[in-house]
Amino acid sequence: MTTWTNVDDLVAILRKRWNTGRYLREHAEGLAWTPIELPVKSPSADELLHRFDDVVRWAGRFERESRTKAGVARFAVEYRTIRGKSLGSNSVPARIRIEHFAQLCALLGTMPEVRSLEEIIDQTMDAVPELVPWVRARPRQAIDNDAVWSGLLAVVAWITHASTEEIYLRQIDVEGVDTKFVDLHKKVLDELLTEVLPEGRIDTQYPAGEFARRYRFLAKPEYTRFRVLGSEPALPEACTEFTLRTEELAALELTSRFLFVVENEITYLAFPRVPDALVVFGSGFGLGSLRPLPWLAGKEIVYWGDLDTHGFDILNRLRSRFDSVRSILMDEATLLSHRSQWVTEPSPTDRTLANLTEAESALYGDLVEDRFGPSIRLEQERVRPSLVQRALEPLLT
Q1: pLDDT tier at 288 (50, 70, 90 boundaries)?
Q2: 223-228 and 241-245 as β-strands: parallel, antiparallel, unpaired?
Q3: Exposed end of the chain (fewer CB within 10 Å): N or C?
């Protein structure tokens, strides 16, 4: 097995360097070219003696590959002399040298990428010249987005001149661009917009994944779905269930004493009648979308979720916003009395939850550590209705 360096080895080294964007960046920024020299491990005198034909073929390839079929130079070959008693003096490749950027492109076949980069720079200069430094600093990334570059520039230019606070993301008015385009390319769009927008145009508390909020577009309204379990003077008496924009719900003066928050729709629909109470479907209320409502002050908030690690996580987040939150049916007795109803929680969490009571925290730890079995979960719709009624009685006295 030969250990001599061949042309393919050298091309692989240069390809790896090229893919970092180093040479493209230097070319785009107009930096002076530094010739590249790579050493060649060549045969020894003994190998030359015993494998003369192999050495001739190996060396001949360097000569052939140093130029294209059209005669364009790819690299220069520097030789060293091997002397042997039987074969005299023989020259073998010792190093290659690439004198110009064009030679490197000819060797790697990357001239189409160079032309693409130059076209991107020209296009950027015409559309959003402030982004030319970004392109020159990240040529590899720009070329990777060559197929959609004109669309990216159009979106950046449009957002730059738009009053985003007055419109939804869907209202971007660029030919051939829709919200799916933005979703597919929001990472690079975020980089480009960060480059050109003033600081006040970007809400940095939101990541690129929340593109609309980060760039101050109108946010999609949040809705709260709830049922009236007793009576509520602020709402039409003939209706028992409502779905309202959360911001509009905040403007109402609801007087019910109890607010129950549940996470399962069937549990929500089947929740028992309770005087002076509301029940909220937690998919739009108990999670991160929850915002404080003025009329919640003084309410007794009761949360009932699935008995699993994520149920306690939701309780923890809800209690971080409202100190008065209590839980029902999220205790060890409820869990152990429904063994036949246990299922497996798909992806348990083990986050530190600082807002649980001592008993809740102990049960959460037992679930995390699989004390009762691997990834135990008791879904709230599997809890017996009689236990629900019994759990509500102390709250109503």
Answers
A1: very low
A2: antiparallel
A3: N
Count: domains in the chain: 3
389: left (phi over 0), alpha (psi -120 to 50) or beta: alpha
Flag whether 2 is in a domain: no
Cα separation of 112 and 146, whole Å? 12
| Residues 184 and 251 both lie in one domain | no
H-helix or E-strand containing 247? helix 246-249
Q: Are the C-beta atoms of 143 and 134 separated by less than 8 Å?
A: no
Question: What is the amino acid identity at position 253?
Answer: E
Q: Which amino acid is at 256?
A: S
Residue that has been written with the tokens 């360096």 in this structure: 5
Q: What is the pLDDT of residues 141-164, one digit of tens each?
A: 999 999 999 999 999 999 999 999
Q: Is the pTM of this model over 0.85?
A: no
Q: Report which secondary-structure segment, H or E, holds 231.
A: none
Radius of gyration of the chain (CA): 35
- Write out the two tokens for 156: 């950046």
pLDDT in tens, 343-364: 999 999 999 999 999 999 999 9
Q: Let me know whether 50 and 149 are in one domain.
A: no
Whole-angstrom distance, CA of residue 90 vs CA of residue 130:
57
Q: Which two tokens stand for residue 252?
A: 């109402």
**What does DSSP assign to residue 219?**
P
For residue 368, give its domain range.
223-396
